Amino acid sequence: MYLLTAATDFEMQAFAEAGGNTKNTLQLVTGIGPVETTLSLSCLLHEQLNQVDAVLNFGVAGAYPDNGTDLQAGQLDICLAEHEILGDLGICLQDGFERFTSADLRVEDSFILDQSLRSVAGRALDCAGIVYKSGTFITVNCASGTRKRGQLLAREFQGLCENMEGAAVARVCNHFALPCLEVRCISNIVEDRDTKKWQLKQACTRAGQAAATIVNNLVEQEKR
Fold first, then answer.
1. Which residue in 24, 102, 120, 123 has a CA-CA distance of 20 to 30 Å to 131?
2. Distance separating alpha carbons of residues 205 and 210, to the nearest angstrom
3. What are the Cα distances from residue 157, in Å, to 85, 131, 160, 162?
4. CA-based max dimension of the chain
5. What pairs with residue 80 in β-bridges?
6. Is the overall model pTM greater than 0.90, yes or no?
7. How far apart are CA 1 and CA 111, in angstroms?
8. Which domains does the chain carry?
């Protein structure tokens, strides 16, 4: 059985409204941020691990406008995660950021997501005519509210977009030896904060549609 995770009720509701399979899947609203996500997902898996075959995390994200690569995402683009990074785990300096590098500090801050699931998801989106991009996602505890901070993180990790839960889901899935997939829709560009430019409702709807497309395809494949 597939477990669907989203940070908010709005995102999970969008999955159901898009016709996502709610009878043959489990759904978990994790709460916002890495701590709430880790706690709620770990508790569920501790009790129901034998029912879960894989985890799909979905929701909205902010796109980095300048990440030093040719791959850029715009508003309402669908994105699949190849790699998740805990972007603000380290040392915050006046004009920069340093990751922990000491051999004495054991830190897990980088996670590769399941390639097989991502390939299946990509084919499902292609068949539905949903264009998507894939790349590195950055998870933060504190969402970037300035273009300068966004550029700092984007260039450090060549990040496609920013969120607040993905790396936590990936870390928990690694611990429980579960494959993990992440799909997000861009609600805003990471710049000097101006919520009037955001398309949060539309992004929730598109994220729910993408998740429903992927999950329904996975469930149908299992039935064959």
1. 24
2. 9
3. 8, 24, 9, 11
4. 56
5. 134, 183
6. yes
7. 23
8. 2-223 (3.40.50.1580)
Q: How many CA atoms lie within 13 A of 68 on its CB side?
A: 11
Query: What is the residue-level pLDDT of the chain in tens, covering all 224 positions?
Result: 999 999 999 999 999 999 999 999 999 999 999 999 999 999 999 999 999 999 999 999 999 988 878 889 999 999 999 999 999 888 878 777 778 777 777 788 999 999 999 999 999 999 999 999 999 999 999 999 999 999 999 988 999 999 999 999 999 999 999 999 999 999 999 999 999 999 999 999 999 999 999 999 998 877 66
List of E strands, the chain: 2-6, 25-29, 54-63, 78-86, 91-93, 96-98, 110-112, 132-139, 159-163, 180-189
